[in-house]
């Protein structure tokens, strides 16, 4: 519309994969025709060079091509460790392949404009958009190359739009999403009129890679105070030096208050930080007793919350903070206890584990392809750790960490793997999918914290976990969900509950590998540990204690016995199997005789990107148990 009404364009070729079949294409063509333009709508896959060549060959020589505007884009967000070749290609192809085809096939034409739509979000630190950032970087590089060669070129790094692809990202929560982006990146949503003004200004500058965005300086100042301002903007935003001592300021503020008022102040600050991360207008939107996963936190939000709260309080907090302390009220209690432990008012909490010599050795073995040799070292190291016996197990039972508060029966208790880096945080996405209907909790395996003793035997580990499950059973029906090796743990816990006269609604095992063959188990664990090391990120940190604790569980894992259970079982499998496993049945017949479901994805993606599909299988199975 803008090209027709403001730039005098009279002949337009509108191209998309679906062409005239695309939603709104016909109405737009009619509107532009009424404005005096001659419009042709064409279907073309611009990622295919031959298709673009045919498209250009079909342009009337009496009205040759004079300008190209390439606005295609696809999103498939995810942290770097979750990106596959397919997910990366899905984002790169419509931007990069198409832009290169258009460049190569039109560079000999007398064009007045060659405009590419890029994005400011990756430039400003938009998290989880590594593939999108890479695609836009290519567009920027292409524009600079064309500009240097004397060819027309602009790659516009757009901010957040209120319409189009960016406008629908938030779905029903579009306004909240816009506030979230404004708080996280300092981007003000662009309406169509403002966008067209930016478009005209960018083309008038003659610069190859202008940023066409509206910036919220107040939000950027907040980011600067919190130490999270994108590097590219640090020359624009000046923050008083006093902001660097925010943690001290909070501690001093608390010290001046009566003891009875401190909890309220800390909770208010925690809720304020959570609301800013989630894009709410105020901390009042944060229920202090609602699980963070229920409020909408994802892995990126969890890390950002930890970072902001750490800046505010001066504390070094774990990246799994929102999973270890499930509600704002719980986090507030932790913050108060940590601040009060310090005489100065600012402390550094000891990290969950230290990346020391052992982590370096194991990582080096992984790089050499000799990781299998590290497992005996880990198991031997675990024997030097303090441990507890089966008689002490009930007193070492882990707390059930609440992830969601649905009311339907049965409640769900999730049990993670004993691989290094595993824990309740792995069930966050499943909890968001299932938590609207059922209560979802997760257990941290005994000994996985640096301050905890390891179970001396398999029976001791199972006794601790079973004690927690038995306590939850007193409140109502429970089903267990075990992920990876956690499936074998869940099965053994179910057997212990049944031996004690209890009854579980069911046991679901998600991509569990639990063969009886010791050598095959060793290969599976080696393969899985290798992938964990490759994925090592903020939420799955691999450290010395985590590796030693894993070694302890590997050692006692061989003690488990082939004991079937009466509870119904579900076996969910990833279609991409661990490479070490071959054709052997991953779950032995004594452990499972119920339905088997297959989910497109790998061992990790089925509880991450494919969590909705995994949840759908679980939901169907759970409904069948209750007869609903």
Model description:
The chain is of the alpha/beta class and 628 residues long. The protein has 3 domains: 44-218, Rossmann fold (3-Layer(aba) Sandwich), CATH 3.40.50; 244-340, ACP-like (Non-ribosomal Peptide Synthetase Peptidyl Carrier Protein, Chain A, Orthogonal Bundle); 357-626, Rossmann fold (3-Layer(aba) Sandwich). It contains 23 helices and 17 strands. Strands 10-12-11-14-15-16-17 form a 7-stranded mixed sheet, with helices on both faces. Strand 11 (408-415), helix 18 (428-434) and strand 12 form a beta-alpha-beta unit.
Under the CATH scheme, the architecture of the largest domain is 3-Layer(aba) Sandwich
Count of β-strands: 17
Distance between the termini: 53 Å
Into which percent range does the helicity of residues fall? 40-55%
CATH topology of the largest domain: Rossmann fold
What is the top-level CATH class of the largest domain?
Alpha Beta
Low-confidence stretches: 166-172, 343-352
Count of domains: 3
User: In the CATH hierarchy, what is the superfamily of the largest domain?
Assistant: Alpha/Beta hydrolase fold, catalytic domain
List the helices and strands and how they pair.
Blueprint lengths: L1 H6 L3 E6 L8 H10 L3 E6 L5 H9 L9 E4 L14 H22 L6 E7 L10 H19 L5 E5 L5 H4 L6 H12 L1 E2 L3 H14 L5 E2 L1 E2 L1 H9 L20 H10 L3 H20 L13 H4 L3 H15 L7 H4 L3 H13 L16 H12 L5 H9 L4 E2 L12 E5 L2 E8 L12 H7 L3 E5 L11 E2 L2 H16 L4 E6 L2 H14 L6 E5 L7 H18 L8 H14 L11 E6 L21 E4 L11 H16 L2
Helix pairs in contact: 3-4, 4-5, 7-9, 10-13, 11-13, 11-15, 17-22, 18-23, 19-20
């Amino acid at each position: 519309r803008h090209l027709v009404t403001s730039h005098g364009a009279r002949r337009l070729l509108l191209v998309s994969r679906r062409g005239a079949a695309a939603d709104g294409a016909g109405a737009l063509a009619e509107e532009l025709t009424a404005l005096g333009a001659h419009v042709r709508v064409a279907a073309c896959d611009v990622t295919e060079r031959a298709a673009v060549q045919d498209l250009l060959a079909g342009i009337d020589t009496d009205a040759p091509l004079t300008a190209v505007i390439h606005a295609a884009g696809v999103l498939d967000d995810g942290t770097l460790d979750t990106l596959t070749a397919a997910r990366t290609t899905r984002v790169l192809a419509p931007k990069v392949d198409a832009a290169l085809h258009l460049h190569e096939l039109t560079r000999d034409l007398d064009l007045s404009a060659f405009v590419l739509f890029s994005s400011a979000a990756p430039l400003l630190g938009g998290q989880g958009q590594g593939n999108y950032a890479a695609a836009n970087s290519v567009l920027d590089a292409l524009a600079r190359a064309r500009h240097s060669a004397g060819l027309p070129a602009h790659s516009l790094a757009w901010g957040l739009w209120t319409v189009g692809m960016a406008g629908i990202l938030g779905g029903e929560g579009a306004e909240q999403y816009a506030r979230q982006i404004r708080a996280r990146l300092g981007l003000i949503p662009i309406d169509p009129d403002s966008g067209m003004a930016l478009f005209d200004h960018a083309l008038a500058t003659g610069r190859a890679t202008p940023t066409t965005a509206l910036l919220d300086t107040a939000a950027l100042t907040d980011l600067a105070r919190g130490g999270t301002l994108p590097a590219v903007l640090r020359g624009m935003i000046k923050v008083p030096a006093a902001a660097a001592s925010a943690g001290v300021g909070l501690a001093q503020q608390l010290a001046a208050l009566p003891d009875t008022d401190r909890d309220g102040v800390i909770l208010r600050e925690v809720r304020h930080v959570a609301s800013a991360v989630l894009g709410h207008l105020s901390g009042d939107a944060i229920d202090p007793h609602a699980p963070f996963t229920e409020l909408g936190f994802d892995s990126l939000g969890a890390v950002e919350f930890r970072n902001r709260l750490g800046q505010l309080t001066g504390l070094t907090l774990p990246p799994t903070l929102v999973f270890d302390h499930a509600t704002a009220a719980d986090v507030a209690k932790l913050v108060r206890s940590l601040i009060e432990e310090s005489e100065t008012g600012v402390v550094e909490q000891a990290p969950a584990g230290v990346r020391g010599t052992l982590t370096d050795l194991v990582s080096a073995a992984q790089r050499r392809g000799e990781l299998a040799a590290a497992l005996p070292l880990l198991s031997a190291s675990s024997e030097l750790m303090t441990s507890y016996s089966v008689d002490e197990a009930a007193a070492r039972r882990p707390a059930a960490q609440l992830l969601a508060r649905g009311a339907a029966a049965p409640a769900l208790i999730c049990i993670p793997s004993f691989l290094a880096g595993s824990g309740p945080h792995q069930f966050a996405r499943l909890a968001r999918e299932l938590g609207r209907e059922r209560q979802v909790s997760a257990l941290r395996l005994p000994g996985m914290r640096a301050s905890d003793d390891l179970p001396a035997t398999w029976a001791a580990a199972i006794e601790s976990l079973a004690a927690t499950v038995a306590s939850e059973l007193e409140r109502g029906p429970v089903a267990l969900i075990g992920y990876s090796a956690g499936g074998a743990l869940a099965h053994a816990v179910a057997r212990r509950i049944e031996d004690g006269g209890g009854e579980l609604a069911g046991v679901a095992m998600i991509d569990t590998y639990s063969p009886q063959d010791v050598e095959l188990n060793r290969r599976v664990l080696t393969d899985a540990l290798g992938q964990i090391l490759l994925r090592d990120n903020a939420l799955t940190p691999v450290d010395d204690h985590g590796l030693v604790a894993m070694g302890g569980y590997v050692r006692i894992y061989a003690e488990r016995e082939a004991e079937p259970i009466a509870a119904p079982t579900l076996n969910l499998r990833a279609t991409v199997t661990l490479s070490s496993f071959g054709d052997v049945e991953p779950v032995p017949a004594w452990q499972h005789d119920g339905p088997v479901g297959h989910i497109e994805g790998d061992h990790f993606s089925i509880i991450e990107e494919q969590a909705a599909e995994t949840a759908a299988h679980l939901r169907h199975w759970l409904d069948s148990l209750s007869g609903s």
